[in-house]
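ARCHIVE RECORD
Type: protein–small molecule complex
Small molecule: farnesyl diphosphate
Source of inputs: curated submission
Record status: active
Notes field left blank by submitter.
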Amino acid sequence: MLRKIFGGSKKQPIDIDDIDKEKLPRHVAVIMDGNGRWAKGQGLLRTAGHAAGVKTLKRILRLADDIGIEALTVYAFSTENWKRPKEEVDFLLSLFSEYLAKELAEMHEKKVRIKFIGDRTGFSEKLQNEMANAEELMKNNGGILFTIAANYGGRDEILRAAKLLAKDTDANIDSLTEADFEKYLDTFGAPPVDLVIRTSGEMRLSNFLLWQAAYAEFWYTNTPWPDFSEREFIEAIKEFAARNRRFGGV
Ligand code: FPP
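STRUCTURE (tokenized, with ligand):
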């Protein structure tokens, strides 16, 4: 499909058909950072940054789907984000509900398969139900796997997996493989993360997908998430395609 994209600083159209489909990352994970700084720079409240961030997310999900990426995972709320002011936490949680209410039908029509990872028992029963209903509705869709990490921490996920394993009386601990252990992780069934993108200049993993991103390539930009463009996403994909991945070999 020919899709011309205008965006970023160069304002020239770019064509997604010239992306080498053989070298696409199967799974892209995004740390959507910089909403607060973006809002401050605009003289707005931090919450306005998160609302603007949702718009970027919609654009990037659509593009990732158009390009043919198999899985996109975004870090929406970490286990550490509860430390933020209550108004900001409440706003973020209400954004999740609003997003599901407004976007579900279109995503479903596009065959998106939504999934939430993280400890959802930390959320209200209402939000937990909304998440479960969205997953149930889309569970048989064959399009992009769109995972939202909410109340997510990589260490927390691994610890919860270890607890599930300890309670699994069928598990044979002595012969347990990495592939067996993955069955207890929230992301079970998703391809390994190939590419982690982080916006807004930081170069940290911040407890995101610690197990899954073990061999991921890292790409970052100084652009804050609300300004992150389709052009930059494609730049990241093309740079990924040009990297030499050795997975510990030579
Ligand atoms: C980091 O920016 C961003 C977050 C903690 C939240 C990201 C959430 C969204 C983009 C909304 C997602 C919504 C849905 C529906 C999935 P920051 O606030 O830490 O920015 P700062 O580092 O500039 O303060």
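CURATOR ANNOTATION: The mean pLDDT is 94.
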